[in-house]
């Protein structure tokens, strides 16, 4: 199993009791220096929890230049008295109270719903500071009807609404526009977390939009079903958020992305509820309105209920991994796998830097024997097969299906890999790779403790441009860090995380130690913007699944032409003429 | 590095003499040829053999696409078309053989030590920068092209400086030379047909071949932006075809950047000086052949003075094209050659920019100054007068920072030494102490006026300097037209611009003028005269100084022959009764 599912229903608890207010994930889980000077991962939720990773600190020292004595810790407590005073709208409050839904103007409630997880937001929080504008109050609708009432009250009293699900956005989508003078009510959807019904005949399930990913999969699993939608954030992100940002799941090769899974959706807009009148696999009725709801990022209305396709749980799951002599060989192999349409549920190709990072995350071997085996394996790969450790990279695989088809898939995939110089590197390496997906997010907080800012961002790109784009963007990051006066080595690495017929999704990780730089956040933003500019120049997209939010709004016109911007705006103008959904995401 | 280890010192202009130590002892050439050679490597380069380079070309999308198109059009099988492509590529491709290269270096360095008796000078400061650039970006050397020696010189200098040896786009004519052809190939030359405008297949193969080398960074690329050797000492107008080819990988984001290094190679004395003069007189250019080269080896007895190889500042295409959005190429396959009109426009300007850099960095010789004076005195000039004229030009040159190498010693000594070195062109008649252009030279064709070839040689050496003078000279004509002798003459820029533009358009094939930049050119000319205190300005009008006639007359005399040539041609065309067939582009 990828993660230990401890019996914590996120939906039953107030999130702040379980989750950090100023960092990623669970309160008890973090990378930390132990008394022996090695980095360990705390808590008990993940496979890595409680283990020491002796190679991690040396890796961080040599790759990013951290020094254990040069620390930059976050404030322990945030002084909530400094929070901006709420702008309240009495008429709205009165109307909302009448519906019986919960409302809060508690400072902590407002704080934790005022941000997502972009670097600049976390940097501010760690300093104990706030944005100039935060939500004025939080409302907790319990069902679709509550939302209908809420939206009509907001229209009546001209209140700005910002929906929030899991709050894992990395595009500043939850940030309140600074010039918003109306009352901002952030609509916390997490109380709407029920699977309303399951229709096994048609393999459909109607689910409330506030449900968190891991709860959804667990509840469905109890019925022998799954959606198969597993974005990396699935522990914390919500179904509504997935629809609103056009999310993509790790296993999309088998199950599809959110737009493929979605059969029906209800969105409450200031003009009324927008939905189709039937639940059919496909229809020809003019432009597909679902495509306007998908990716609307909270600017048109609130997504309340979603009907997804569900599948029986797979009989068999198997991990795998392949080492390649270099990244280009790996990309060529993935390209052929995509061409032959035999991709396993998930296939990800890490570059050499990530390959080495993965090595650094290996927990202490529990005996001489296993490190001996490691040594032998390394000898075989580097000496006998002649792979250069400074170029080689690894792909991790996850196969799903019945036992026979998994075995077949494995055979085909490993045959193609062999053609491209790839060699199977075992099941364990693959499994570890996927397990790391969930803990990597915690590493940024650890970096921030040691004066390191880091972030990840993604794009999609046609196959013929994948390798060039990866190389150029990584180079651009290095050059821009130099321009920004970074004095330490820069981490600039990528992986291909999704394959399609026509292209792939690429994820970049970037991090640097900011010691000596006056304004680390702006330096970081300059680097990320340079990287995004390079991505677009290389024929990549503005985003594969994170969305636009406010972070990438500046690139929208370049992406969809001014005519495209006008189209988006005109729909907004019709559905929400008074800009009730005033988060300011996507377009101005 | 050789030049540090051996304590070879840098002179005041930043140059070191590559041949300095080689003259000490004959075994030094062996030491040179067997020296360690470990150039920096492009960090993203995937090591491959030179045969894999052209094999990879056959695997490319561009070639597959073109092969499919051609096979369909001509009703052939794709296999057949690929076979044809393979033949062309084998003819095109370079090979690597370090041992042949070292042999070549051994021979060449000996020849060079014997003919360039004053040394081969290289500016080393920029080289350090280039050595660093090589690691991060694909590099393109763009040397000026005056001589066959140019690409041999480039490879030898790269070998000497531990710079990676370039892949050189060379003319097909060299390929047919026995032994030498394959030696050139072994040292990185690849051979391109002179014109292949409409041959789609050739164009695709050639483009892809250049791209794959550039993108993988197997070697730096080297090509001559002038397209061919300039036979007249002046720069030729840039050719844009290859420039587009090397810019495309950057514009289509196949590389992070492409860095161009303009290189100026300046010769005191040209190996081909007579050849060029005869070519201009209509004697056909001899076909390149090894036996021809052997016959020409008699010229290898003489002293050819010194050579200056100047590596210009690296020019990043990323910076140059930085303001253009490369995403315009995102919506069609990258193997289709297509550049936006903006890109084409900037490509042209880039070509001119590179040429101007080459001119700026060229090192003119004292002999070219002497030739400049001689050319204005076709009937001869006294030695005394010659030296005073040279002295006067030197004062201008120093004031305006012309790059001219003034050898150490008094001007009298150095000019005399220079005259001795070029005694095959000028002779000093002892009694009258008068310079006379040598008329003892044997002419091939008695119809041609007997000493025309010498005049042409003189003119060609003079031409090396003219890029410094052409703009002020054109303005001198304009000022002359608008001024009345004996009066105070004032001018405005607007008054001058029209005539100035006319003249620069007229001479655009003779000199390098960036299209549509007459205004800037005029500014430059005005600046020249302001520095010379010929023109003074009150902000809007310029007044001609009384003492200015010498500079102005001199400049007009220098450029007059070019205008007369056009005038004569026009006269002939107007009076000719034969029907005129004008080229389409006019």
TrEMBL record, chain A:
Active site (record annotation): 507 (proton donor/acceptor)
GO cellular component: peroxisome
Keywords annotated in UniProt: FAD, Flavoprotein, Lipid biosynthesis, Lipid metabolism, Peroxisome, Transferase
Recorded metabolic or biological pathway in which this protein acts: Glycerolipid metabolism; ether lipid biosynthesis; Lipid metabolism
Membrane-traversing stretches: none
Compartment(s) of residence: Peroxisome
Lipid biosynthesis keyword on record: yes
Gene3D superfamilies registered for this protein in UniProt: 3.30.160.650, 3.30.300.330, 3.30.465.10, 3.30.70.3450, Uridine Diphospho-n-acetylenolpyruvylglucosamine Reductase, domain 2 (3.30.43.10), Vanillyl-alcohol Oxidase, Chain A, domain 4 (1.10.45.10)
EC number(s) recorded for this UniProt protein: 2.5.1.26
GO biological process: ether lipid biosynthetic process; lipid biosynthetic process
Gene Ontology MF, one: alkylglycerone-phosphate synthase activity
Cofactors that this protein relies on: FAD
Site feature (Important for enzyme activity) residues: 348
A Pfam short name: FAD-oxidase_C
Reaction catalysed by this enzyme: a long chain fatty alcohol + a 1-acylglycerone 3-phosphate = a 1-O-alkylglycerone 3-phosphate + a long-chain fatty acid + H(+)
Binding site for FAD: 245-248, 297-303
Domain FAD-binding PCMH-type residues, every copy: 131-313
InterPro entries xref list: Alkyl-DHAP_Synthase, FAD-bd_oxidored_4_C, FAD-bd_PCMH, FAD-bd_PCMH-like_sf, FAD-bd_PCMH_sub1, FAD-bd_PCMH_sub2, FAD-linked_Oxase-like_C, Oxid_FAD_bind_N
PROSITE patterns documented for this protein: FAD_PCMH
Residues noted as binding substrate in the record, renumbered to the chain: 444
Purpose: Catalyzes the exchange of an acyl for a long-chain alkyl group and the formation of the ether bond in the biosynthesis of ether phospholipids.
Family note: Belongs to the FAD-binding oxidoreductase/transferase type 4 family.
Subunit structure: Homodimer.
UniProt-recorded name of the protein: Alkylglycerone-phosphate synthase
Organism: Ciona intestinalis
UniProt gene name: LOC100175580
UniProtKB/TrEMBL annotation, chain B:
UniProt cross-references to CDD domains, sorted A to Z: LPLAT_DHAPAT-like
Domain Phospholipid/glycerol acyltransferase: 139-268
GO molecular function: glycerone-phosphate O-acyltransferase activity
Main localisation: membrane
Compartments reported by the entry: Endomembrane system
GO CC aspect terms: endomembrane system; peroxisomal membrane
Superkingdom field: Eukaryota
Protein keywords: Acyltransferase, Membrane, Transferase
A Pfam family matched in the record: Acyltransferase
Record family assignment: Belongs to the GPAT/DAPAT family.
PANTHER family linked: DIHYDROXYACETONE PHOSPHATE ACYLTRANSFERASE (PTHR12563:SF17), GLYCEROL-3-PHOSPHATE ACYLTRANSFERASE (PTHR12563)
Name assigned to this protein: Phospholipid/glycerol acyltransferase domain-containing protein
Organism: Ciona intestinalis (Transparent sea squirt)
